[in-house]
Automatic annotation (TrEMBL), chain B:
Membrane-topology descriptor: Multi-pass membrane protein
Name recorded for this polypeptide: Glutamate transport system permease protein
Limits of the ABC transmembrane type-1 domain: 69-255
Cross-referenced SUPFAM superfamilies: MetI-like (SSF161098)
Any single biological process term in GO: amino acid transport
Family statement drawn from the similarity comment of this UniProt entry: Belongs to the binding-protein-dependent transport system permease family.
Cross-referenced InterPro entries: AA_ABC_transptr_permease_3TM, ArtM/GltK/GlnP/TcyL/YhdX-like, MetI-like, MetI-like_sf
PANTHER family: AMINO ACID ABC TRANSPORTER PERMEASE, MEMBRANE COMPONENT OF AMINO ACID ABC TRANSPORTER
Record CDD domains: TM_PBP2
Cellular-component GO terms for this entry: ATP-binding cassette (ABC) transporter complex
Species the sequence originates in: Micromonospora chersina
GO molecular function: transmembrane transporter activity
Subcellular locations according to the entry: Cell membrane
From TrEMBL, chain C:
The organism of origin for this protein: Micromonospora chersina
Protein name: Glutamate transport system permease protein
Lineage: Bacteria, Bacillati, Actinomycetota, Actinomycetes, Micromonosporales
Subcellular location: Cell membrane
InterPro entries associated with the record: AA_ABC_transptr_permease_3TM, ArtM/GltK/GlnP/TcyL/YhdX-like, MetI-like, MetI-like_sf
GO biological process, one term: amino acid transport
Keywords: Amino-acid transport, Cell membrane, Membrane, Transmembrane, Transmembrane helix, Transport
Any one GO molecular-function label of the UniProt entry: transmembrane transporter activity
Ranges that cross the membrane: 17-41, 62-80, 92-112, 149-174, 194-217
From TrEMBL, chains D, E:
Protein's name according to its UniProt entry: ABC-type polar-amino-acid transporter
Membrane topology listed for this record: Peripheral membrane protein
Class in the EC hierarchy, top level: translocase
Gene3D superfamilies (UniProt xref): P-loop containing nucleotide triphosphate hydrolases
A Pfam family hit: ABC_tran
Primary location: membrane
TM ranges: none
GO molecular function: ATP binding; ATP hydrolysis activity; ATPase-coupled polar amino acid-transporter activity
Native source species: Micromonospora chersina
Length: 266, 295, 224, 248, 248
């Protein structure tokens, strides 16, 4: 596991900056089961999140080879940061106020939105069409909660992994899968599902993806934001997109650097 | 076979014919059912090549299944050692002459037997860090959870085992001048362990399977890696689950076979749990004993 | 306890345990019937039946329950098309009941079988020697005695079943453990009290159940 | 005491347990009213012999006839035969979950279809005959060994059997209880019951048996009236065996 | 054979099991080298008497002295005392998970702290003395009853006890094995071992005992040399008991 305090380097700097300086390595929490974003293909991790994490690490002076990847699931991201199991989390991590009480966010580096994945021939055109339909998401996730509260007439099926939702969708046991559009796009783009599904394309929420770090690591947060700004201008952000989600033909989004967080300063 | 000796008379010629007919009828019915299942899976395209192809490729095994299996086995092995130790300790504790040892040991055992393992693991991972002000790795959350639960069950098995040893064994030991802890250590615990070997092994099988509950804290064990992570890449969740189930069945069967072999060997070497003689003391009525089938 | 003061949370807590109790109740009945039948198979003089019983026990006892429940959804329901209700939750509930039952039946079978083994062979021989037929021997002499020896282990199996019901959460039923997970996710500051409430509820249900079965087994024990 | 045709006839009976030849070409006939005592070292096949007679053990070859008909192999006919042959075991084997009286009436009611009231009356009379009428409503575990064995004899007698088999009926008993069981057996013998008795009680063999059979290694080695057998055993095995059990 | 002060002295010993008065004011002294046989009906308290002497059963009142000192109540001192009093049980109670030789050496090594090699040598000598040296590496269940009981005697002797207690050492044995165990006991008696023997083997009592004690209902009813006791029992109870076990 990671060293609890991130290590105070010889320079006296604390947080991730200090750790990156003194130890020249970082532990970064990422998803392992989300194609296009963060997926573990054997011993490697691949995806847009992974590339962003590499950019951040590089900006902090840590070589990509010195990153220790740690698989996180939605539920353990805050504990991992709070307990120091990881230094950073880049794992489809939506910035919201509830989470801001526990961790600090840099970014957002991407704005996703909740959407629906349906069979290619489905008539469901948006969340309104879900009444009486069966919709699948991951147990206890924000998208699942939103369906429950905002579309209570939909029947919600929950599994512990999206891949099970996708399989249920393929088999016709559920009519739609819901979560962030970009995650759905990642699945739809997988070769084994080619032509079978479509992302409805009508988002009904805003999910700004942030980079999580310790609540009190304001310096680290600001540094990460700087790195993101630089990445937007020097083309590495676009390169990261093109190497991963961009492969499906979707053009790279603009990284709106004016929207970056203030790292918790009031 | 001993069961049949209790229940059935030796079959005569008519009984043999009847048994043969029953065999055939049931066998045909079973085959038909299996065929139906096969056909349905076929119809649903579950036998399609691209779902199964990954299992012909080395990376599937070297990158997913084997690392997961290694974690599973490692966690199970650690959990087995710890829960055996825990089991013996608390069994002896519950048999102590001092109430201030017996009662707390009893409370601990009863509590951990009553709380679902899923809750335990979850709590150790998310809750205990608040108590100890430091992270608990998923591995240890799983292992400690397994230890507390299976250790408690084993404690009860050992206790039942120790109580099933005829009083004569410990009396004979006292009579040669052993102290209570020597009697426990040299006579009762070894015999209880052998007498309870089948129960202990089925509990260890349970423990091995229970590592699968590690998914709740994203512990990268066989189920997580071999089913969830693999199918996130290849979209073959049903095929992957079939393969993983087969692996579990094979490993657990091996464990059971090993235990049966050990059991037979100790019996061949002549170890037999001595029969309870009709002593007027109040040993508990010997009930049937089985493992507790948690997850 | 501010978490449970919120009526939504209290509702979730209550309905979580209600699911657990329903799952336990329905599966207990099914598993008992199935387990006794399997035990009868396993001790029968017909090799195919014995083999079937043994295979059942070996397969289901050696597979993680998580996987069995998974197969109930993706095998039984998705692939074989056996839907048990149109309502999504009820369907998952019954799929869970099927999974818990086939799994628990393997343990019930073993408990019953070892219970039959506690009846000394001499009892059945004596019954046969006075001219009782097979079924009379079984009904009048063997089963009543085996039944009593089997109470305690069946109690353990029931308790384990109740705890195992939490695993049905993996196919989306909001039973107690899923509720606890949810509550902890949204009340990160109250992890310990939430856990204590859920664990305590389980203990409050199961510890007395355990003692009850112990007491019953002692009462019914056949004195030899 | 032998009258008419023999009641039990074994002819060339062989039995194996796996590779073990437990009964080796045993031929024996027991006449009506005859009392035959079987002795021999442990493992010589005495119990097995006894148990083949009511087919608790099937045999591999040879024939066994009871009362003129070969032993049925199974089913109702076998159950009927068994109800006509009483059996008493070394370990009593009373039904542990039934009272003494229920033990005795179970057979008559369930097998013979007798009225419970009638069976009860006869059961009480039998318990009285073996001297434990006052224990009728107790459970087996509450009785001494000697009382249990007498109850077991009453249970067998309740079926009004044509013959009785005893497999070491006294060897699980405390010494001062042996006498009371042997007394019951002696009185049975005197009343003309056909009996096959495996026992080590030489006193009983001497004064109650018509014939003593000595077995060794599954073979029937000697078959003689008790006086002759004890005074002058012919085989070495028998001499050796008798010297061991009679000297201390 | 009695020399000097007595080795075992019971004085006014009382013991209850709940409401049951199992030992009723028992006083008894056993001299060094003396062999005392205890007989009596089942439940009369013979085993309990035997077991109080090495405090496997605590007593409610009275005193028991062994070799001049009162029995210690617990702890090391009690364990030491027990190691000086050998005990042989009806059901052998060999440690089922240890070989015969390990059974014999366990006490010397673990209790006395002897070197394993030395204990082993002495153990083998003892097994030889009781005639089962060739069974040293077998497990108890592989031996016949007679062999097991002789191993149990060797185990007790291995502690070099000052006295030996036997609780019905032959009553769980097949009749042809009783002799071999009694032979070992007789030779021990001849070698001057102090022995308290509960047994129903009247032959042994007659020719090996210095005194016979008859117990009934927890009371010590008679205490006499064997010849006198058997020829002329004084109490009704003893007469009745003897008639029961000697007649069949
Ligand atoms: N069910 C069985 N399976 C295998 N072997 C058996 C079985 N029953 C008895 N034997 C063996 O058959 C032989 C004869 O057994 P049997 O019980 O008839 O002897 P016995 O003369 O009655 O001896 P004992 O005096 O010890 O009762 C023994 O070697 C015994 O081990
Ligand atoms: N642990 C005990 N608890 C209660 N009662 C007991 C206990 N041990 C023995 N008794 C009772 O004490 C009485 C004397 O028992 P003890 O075993 O000393 O008799 P015994 O003379 O050795 O009889 P036996 O010849 O049957 O061995 C009996 O009535 C017995 O039931
Ligand atoms: Mg026999
Ligand atoms: Mg006794």
């Amino acid at each position: 596991g990671g060293d609890g305090d991130g290590g105070s380097g010889s320079s006296g700097a604390k947080g991730i900056i200090g750790k990156a300086q003194s130890q020249k390595k970082l532990v970064i929490g990422v998803k392992a089961d989300q194609p296009g974003l963060g997926i573990q293909t054997g011993s490697q991790y691949e995806g847009f999140d992974i590339e962003i994490a590499k950019i951040v690490a590089k900006g902090l002076g840590v070589d990509a080879n010195n990153i220790e990847w740690k698989t996180t699931v939605s539920a353990n991201r805050e504990p991992f940061i709070q307990q120091g199991t990881v230094d950073l989390v880049v794992a489809t991590y939506t910035i919201n106020d509830e989470r801001k009480k526990k961790v600090n966010f840099a970014g957002p580096y991407f704005i996703a939105g909740q959407d629906l994945l349906v069979k290619a021939d489905s008539t469901i055109a948006g969340p309104e069409g879900l009444d009486g339909k069966k919709v699948c998401s991951v147990t206890g996730s924000t998208p699942a909660k939103r369906i429950q509260t905002e579309h209570p007439k939909a029947q919600l099926q929950q599994f512990d992994a999206y891949s099970k939702c996708i399989t249920a969708l393929e088999g016709g046991q559920v009519d739609a899968v819901t979560t962030d559009d970009i995650i759905l796009a990642g699945y739809a783009a997988q070769s084994q599902y080619a032509g079978k599904f479509k992302v409805v394309g009508k988002t009904f929420s805003t999910e700004p993806y942030g980079i999580g770090l310790k609540k009190d690591d304001k310096d680290g947060c600001e540094k990460v934001n700087e790195i993101l700004k630089a990445a937007a201008s020097d083309g590495s952000y676009k390169a990261a997109w093109d190497a991963t989600l961009g492969k499906s033909g979707k053009a790279a989004p603009e990284l709106d650097t004016t929207k970056l967080t203030n790292c918790g300063s009031v | 076979m001993s069961t049949s000796a209790v229940l059935y008379d030796h079959p005569g010629p008519r009984a043999r014919v009847r048994n043969a007919v029953l065999s055939v009828v049931f066998g045909v019915g079973l085959a038909a059912l299996l065929w139906w299942v096969y056909a349905k899976f076929d119809q649903a395209g579950q036998w399609e090549g691209n779902l199964w192809k990954p299992f012909a490729e080395a990376p599937t095994w070297t990158q997913f299944i084997w690392p997961g299996l290694r974690q599973t086995l490692f966690a199970a092995a650690t959990g087995m050692v710890l829960s055996l130790a825990f089991g013996i300790l608390f069994a002896v504790g519950r048999l102590s002459d001092h109430w201030w040892v017996r009662v707390p040991a009893g409370v601990v055992v009863e509590f951990f037997r009553a709380v679902p393992l899923l809750l335990m693991i979850f709590f150790i991972f998310y809750g205990v860090p608040f108590l100890i002000q430091g992270p608990v790795p998923a591995f240890w959350a799983v292992v400690i959870g397994l230890t507390l639960y299976n250790g408690s069950v084993l404690a009860e098995a050992f206790r039942a085992g120790i109580r099933s040893i005829p009083g004569g064994q410990s009396e004979a030991a006292y009579a040669v001048g052993m102290r209570k802890n020597q009697v426990m250590r040299l006579i009762l615990v070894p015999q209880a362990a052998r007498a309870m070997l089948p129960v202990i092994v089925s509990q260890l099988v349970v423990l091995l399977k229970d590592t699968a509950l590690g998914y709740i804290v994203a512990f990268p064990e066989l189920l997580q890696r071999g089913v969830n992570d693999l199918s996130a890449n290849r979209g073959n969740v049903v095929a992957a689950a079939i393969v993983v189930a087969a692996i579990y069945i094979v490993i657990n069967s091996l464990l059971t076979t090993l235990a049966n072999w050990l059991d037979r060997r100790t019996r061949r070497r002549g170890f037999r749990v001595p029969k309870q003689t009709a002593a007027p003391d109040s040993t508990p009525a010997g009930g049937a004993t089985v493992a507790e089938p948690q997850g | 306890m501010h978490v449970f003061a919120d009526p939504t949370n209290l509702d979730a807590y209550l309905s979580g345990f209600l699911w657990i109790l329903k799952l336990t109740g329905a599966s207990a009945v099914l598993a008992l019937v199935l387990g006794v039948l399997l035990a009868a198979f396993r001790v029968s003089p017909v090799p195919v039946l014995r083999g079937f019983g043994a295979a059942w026990v070996n397969i289901f006892r050696n597979t993680p329950l998580t996987l069995i429940i998974f197969f109930c959804y993706f095998g039984l329901y998705s692939t074989l098309g056996v839907g048990l209700s149109d309502d999504l939750n009820l369907n998952n509930f019954w799929l869970g009941v099927v999974g818990l039952s086939v799994y628990t039946a393997a343990f019930v079978c073993e408990a019953v079988r070892s219970g039959v083994n506690t009846v000394p062979a001499g009892q059945a021989e004596a019954a046969r020697a006075i001219g009782l037929t097979f079924f009379q021997t079984l009904r009048i002499v063997v089963l009543p005695q085996a039944g009593r020896a089997v109470v305690a282990p069946l109690g353990s199996v029931l308790i384990a079943l109740c705890k195992n019901a939490t695993i049905v959460g993996t196919i989306g039923l909001m039973e107690a453990s899923s509720v606890m997970k949810d509550l902890i996710n949204s009340n990160g500051d109250a992890v310990i009290p939430i856990f204590l409430v859920f664990a305590g509820t389980f203990a409050a249900i199961l510890v007395p159940t355990g003692y009850f079965f112990g007491w019953l087994a002692n009462r019914l024990a056949v004195k030899r | 005491m032998t009258t008419g045709e023999p009641l039990i006839v074994l002819d060339g009976v062989n039995k194996w347990f796996g590779p073990l030849h437990v009964l080796d070409d045993v031929s024996l006939s027991v006449g009506r009213g005859e009392v035959v005592v079987v002795i021999g070292p442990s493992g010589s096949g005495k119990s097995t012999l006894c148990r083949t007679i009511n087919r608790l053990e099937p045999i591999n070859s040879g024939t066994i006839t009871f009362d003129g008909t070969p032993l049925p192999a199974e089913g109702k006919a076998l159950a009927r035969l068994r109800s006509e042959v009483g059996m008493v075991f070394q370990s009593f084997n009373l039904f542990a979950h039934k009272t003494i009286l229920e033990n005795v009436t179970l057979g008559p009611v369930k097998v013979r279809g007798e009225k419970p009231a009638a069976a009860r009356e006869r059961g009480l009379a039998l318990l009285d005959r073996v001297g434990i009428a006052n224990q009728a409503d107790k459970y087996p575990a509450q009785l001494s060994g000697g009382q249990q064995q007498r109850a077991a004899i009453a249970r067998a007698l309740a079926m009004q059997p044509k013959a009785m088999l005893f497999d070491e009926p006294t060897s699980a008993l405390d010494p001062e209880m042996v006498g009371e069981v042997l007394d019951v057996m002696t009185s049975l013998a005197r009343d003309g019951m056909t009996m096959v008795v495996v026992t080590h009680e030489m006193g009983f063999a001497r004064h109650a048996a018509n014939r003593v059979i000595f077995m060794a290694d599954g073979r029937l080695v000697e078959d003689a009236p008790p006086a002759e057998f004890f005074a002058n055993p012919r085989s070495e095995r028998a001499k050796d065996f008798l010297s061991k059990i009679l000297t201390h």
